[in-house]
């Protein structure tokens, strides 16, 4: 680190990660609830920003607005049903992510196979 201030910042950030990890290990339900609430708020903010950005676009505006509205509504549903949504939202999102990751890897493998044949 070139400056002492950055060093202290990195040490504090590391300590915050350690504390967050310990809290998560000792109380995983609280961690899941907080992560779900944070996710809902982030989706609401992302949806609002997508709609705002779409308003300044010339092409693809409708699709971007639709994307923003869907994201905003998803965030509102998560926050409206919080903390009960904490029991299933993270699992659903992980499942969807794993499915798309698997499909992507299969597509990549098939594409590489065709490229080498």
What secondary-structure arrangement, pairings included, does this model have?
Elements lengths: L3 H23 L1 H27 L6 H20 L8 H28 L1
Helix pairs in contact: 1-2, 2-3
How would you describe this structure to a colleague?
- The chain has one domain (4-116).
- The protein has helices at residues 4-26, 28-54, 61-80, 89-116.
- 84% of the residues lie in helices and 0% in strands.
- The chain contains four helices and no strands.
- Helix 1 packs across helix 2 and helix 2 (28-54) runs antiparallel to helix 3.
- It is extended, with a radius of gyration of 20 Å.
- The model has no long low-confidence stretch (mean pLDDT 89).
- The chain has 117 residues and is mainly α.
Tell me the number of structural domains. Answer: 1
Rounded to the nearest angstrom, the radius of gyration is 20 Å
Give the rounded overall mean pLDDT.
Answer: 89
**Count of extended strands:** 0
Coarse morphology: extended
Category from helices, strands and their pairing: mainly alpha
Distance between the termini: 50 Å
Largest sheet: none
The parts where pLDDT drops under 50 for at least 5 residues are none
């Amino acid at each position: 680190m070139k400056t002492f201030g950055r060093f202290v910042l990195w040490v504090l950030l590391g300590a915050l990660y350690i504390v967050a990890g310990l809290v998560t290990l000792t109380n995983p339900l609280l961690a899941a609830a907080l992560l779900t609430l944070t996710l809902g708020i982030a989706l609401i903010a992302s949806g609002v920003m997508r709609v705002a950005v779409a308003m300044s676009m010339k092409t693809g505006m409708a699709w971007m607005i639709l994307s923003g509205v869907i994201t905003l509504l998803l965030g509102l549903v998560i926050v409206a049903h919080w903390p009960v949504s904490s029991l299933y939202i993270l699992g659903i999102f992980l499942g969807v992510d794993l499915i798309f990751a698997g499909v992507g890897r299969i597509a990549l493998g098939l594409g590489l196979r065709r490229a080498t044949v």
